[in-house]
Amino acid sequence: MVGAVSERRVALVAGVSGIAGSALATRLADEGWDVWGLSRGRTSVPAGVRAVQADLEDRAQLLDVLAGIGPTHVFHTAWKRHATEAENIAVNGAMVRNLLAAAASAGTVRHAALLTGLKHYIGAPDDQGRIETPDTPFTEDMPRRPVQQFYYAQEDELFAAADRYGFTWSVHRAHTIVGHAVGNAMNMGLTLAVQAAVCREEGRPFIFPGSQVRWEGLGDMTDAGLLAEHMLWATTNPQAANEAYNVVNGDVFRWRTMWPKIAAMLGAEPIGYEDRPRPLREQMLDAAPAWRRIAERHQLVEPDVDRVASWWHTDGDLGRGMEMLADMSKSRLAGFTGYVRTEDSFRRLFQQYRVGRVIPPLGDDVAVDRAQMPKELSA
User: Fold this and answer.
1) Which domain holds residue 78?
2) The predicted structure's pLDDT at residue 363
3) DSSP symbols for 237-305
4) Boundaries of each NAD-dependent epimerase/dehydratase domain copy (predicted)?
5) Which residues of the chain have pLDDT under 50?
6) Which of 6, 19, 73, 166 has its CA 20 to 30 A from that of 181?
């Protein structure tokens, strides 16, 4: 009987409608876990996952809806965006605190995993460029920046809850995540696909929106499937517990080589960095009518461009004036061997969106003549 209890694996995934949460819930269900997906609204959940609705800011509601579930493992992949970092800290810290208190009330939680990101090393957007940035690649032993940000508040809530309720923990610091979701606030892959479709519709080039540093410097990204694999690994391996880890694909690239590859996948004509950033919030200012035409013509599932493109997030990511690169040695030395080529992440994602009629199909009429590309973009 004791052995049966020890093998019970009940996952609670907060943020199941997001890129990371959806991929994680799918992976856990495929592995045979009993999976509950928590979100604020009546959003769809992956096959094999049971949905539960609650607001992470409402502890009483969480206690009510989680009663009887008895999760053994809690995964926090959600966040709420606010106008100021002070608000982000207050709200997102409380969300972690409330979730872990409610989940732990049954006395069944053995491990809690928290998803954060590389802003841990560079500060919140308002602090970037104002404070000193450590050299890349970022390593997990680098001290926190001398500023306040909500990732730190979330970590502190996780550590306090682990001490209070007696479970192990892990923190997973991802870079920009490549994965499937619609209506997500931070979705570079879908945003670029929408940008390319609008550019094709209007007969204009697919222009890199970011900074010269991001165009020329090294970078990396995080595949949602790899992130799910990493969270499962840290959750189920005792030697990996009570640690923070960077989680990136394992390859590195320059956007000056990745941009034309993405353009080719999307049937668009690429234009790289030229003398200044060209933010998508400016390039795509009038994109709504073009996207609605595309959606109606191809019977896409979402005609509202604001539900499929997060211009602000891609601008913020690609517009940074610093190189973004994380070291994975800590995970490798602890036994994690997962690897994904970022180019393949994008290719799979775009195909998944086409199959799901989220973005339009490609046809012979939009094939890119690579021989006509500038030399630096055709490589």
Assistant:
1) 10-174
2) 64
3) -GGG-SEEEEE--B--EEHHHHHHHHHHHHT--EE--BSB---HHHHTTTHHHHHHHHHHHHT-S---G
4) 11-247
5) 1-5, 364-379
6) 73
